[in-house]
């Protein structure tokens, strides 16, 4: 658990306040399960956030049903961004915990339009992994999936 996560219940969560209409936002889409709004600290022009209305801390906390609703809205927003802004590409970014750059502890997905000259860079460098380590780590993940798959079914 991240020590910076103080919003397990959603109390004091800015995204819960936005979803409830209690905090200002520039909404671009909403339905029964999700809200999409402009990021006030955009990585690029047209940067949109998509959140579930129900509070979930991160990907490991959101229910499978809510995740499906969010991703459906993410795709809908991405199509709208493509139509409205004609970017050269679109990034989807979803962060979990502070080490992965999560700054608001309410599950959300960034829809970020990209242009060749926007100045953003990948957060990692591309280099070949060690084959033995890849096999060992892959086996550990596979074992966790085989043994704990039911746990992922919220």
SSE topology sketch:
Blueprint lengths: L13 H6 L7 E4 L3 E5 L9 E5 L11 H22 L3 E5 L15 E6 L16 H18 L6
Antiparallel strand pairs: 1-2, 2-3, 3-5, 4-5
Describe it.
With 154 residues, the protein is an alpha+beta fold. The chain has a single domain, classed as HIT family, subunit A, CATH 3.30.428.10. Helices cover 30% and strands 16% of the residues. It is built from three helices and five strands; from the N terminus they run H-E-E-E-H-E-E-H. A five-stranded antiparallel sheet has the order 1-2-3-5-4. The chain starts with 13 loop residues before the first helix and ends in a 6-residue tail after the last helix.
From the structure above, extract its key features:
154 residues; alpha+beta; HIT family, subunit A; 30% helix; disordered N terminus
- Architecture, according to CATH? 2-Layer Sandwich
Classified by CATH, the class is Alpha Beta
Main β-sheet, in a few words?
Answer: 5 strands, antiparallel
Tally of individual helices: 3
Give me the count of strands.
Answer: 5
Uncertain regions: pLDDT < 50 for 5+ in a row?
1-7
Q: Span between N and C termini?
A: 19 Å
CATH superfamily: HIT-like
Order of helices and strands: HEEEHEEH
Structural class: alpha+beta
Return Rg in Å.
17 Å
Number of domains: 1
Mean pLDDT: 91
At CATH level 3, the topology is HIT family, subunit A
Strand content: 15-25%
Give the % helix.
25-40%
Spatial shape? globular
Strand order of the largest sheet: 1-2-3-5-4
């Amino acid at each position: 658990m991240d020590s910076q996560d103080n919003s397990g219940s959603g109390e004091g969560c800015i995204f819960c306040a936005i979803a409830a209409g209690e905090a200002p936002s520039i909404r671009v889409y909403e339905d029964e399960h999700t809200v999409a709004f402009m990021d006030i600290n955009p990585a690029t022009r047209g940067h949109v956030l998509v959140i579930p209305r129900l509070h979930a801390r991160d990907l490991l906390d959101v229910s499978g049903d809510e995740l499906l609703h969010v991703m459906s809205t993410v795709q809908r927003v991405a199509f709208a961004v493509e139509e409205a802004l004609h970017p050269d590409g679109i990034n989807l970014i979803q962060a979990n915990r502070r080490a992965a750059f999560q700054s608001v502890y309410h599950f959300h997905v960034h829809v970020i339009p990209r242009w060749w000259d926007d100045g953003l860079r990948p957060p990692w460098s591309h280099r070949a992994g060690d084959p033995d380590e890849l096999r060992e780590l892959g086996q550990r993940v596979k074992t966790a999936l085989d043994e704990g798959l039911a746990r992922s079914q919220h």
